[in-house]
From TrEMBL:
The keyword Cytoplasm does not apply. InterPro entries: Cgr1-like (IPR005579). It is found in: Nucleus, Nucleolus. This is rRNA-processing protein. Keywords: Coiled coil, Nucleus, Ribosome biogenesis, rRNA processing. Residues 95-114 are annotated as: Disordered. Residues 95-107 have a biased composition (Basic residues). It holds the Pfam family Cgr1. The keyword Ubl conjugation does not apply. Coiled coil: none annotated. Involved in nucleolar integrity and required for processing of the pre-rRNA for the 60S ribosome subunit.
C-alpha cells in the first residue's frame, strides 16, 4: 500500500515544477494566516452581536432605573396624600377613631392585594 503523500506531490515523489515565490513583496505577507474570509466574517458578526447585546443590556438597565425612580415617586406621593387625608380627618374626629379607620383600611388593602 502506498501512503498518501503531501498535497501537490505525486506518488513517485518526483517534483515536476518548482514552487515560485510571488514577485511582489507585499503579497508574500499574509496578514491573518489562520482565519479564512468566512471565519473573519463570522467573527465580525459575533462581535457585532455581542456589542448590540451589551448596548441593549445597558439600555434596559437605564430604563429599569428610570422606572424604579418613577415607582418610588408614586409611592411617596401616595403616602403623603394619605397622611394629609388622615390629618384632615383628625381635625374633624377623635384621634382614636382616626387610628381605628387607618388600621381597618390597611387591613382591607392587604386583603385586596392577595
Amino acid at each position: 500500500m502506498v501512503e498518501e503523500e503531501v498535497k501537490g506531490k505525486i506518488v513517485s515523489g518526483r517534483v515536476w515544477k518548482q514552487e515560485k515565490e510571488p514577485f511582489r513583496v507585499g503579497s508574500r505577507v499574509v496578514k491573518n494566516k489562520k482565519l479564512t474570509s468566512w471565519e473573519l466574517k463570522k467573527q465580525k458578526r459575533l462581535e457585532e452581536k455581542q456589542y448590540k447585546e451589551r448596548l441593549q443590556a445597558l439600555k434596559d438597565e437605564k430604563d429599569e432605573l428610570k422606572r424604579q425612580r418613577v415607582e418610588n415617586l408614586k409611592i411617596r406621593r401616595e403616602k403623603k396624600e394619605e397622611k394629609e387625608r388622615y390629618e384632615r380627618l383628625a381635625a374633624k374626629m377623635h384621634a382614636k377613631k382616626v387610628e381605628r379607620m387607618r388600621r381597618r383600611e390597611k387591613r382591607n388593602k392587604a386583603l385586596k392585594e392577595r
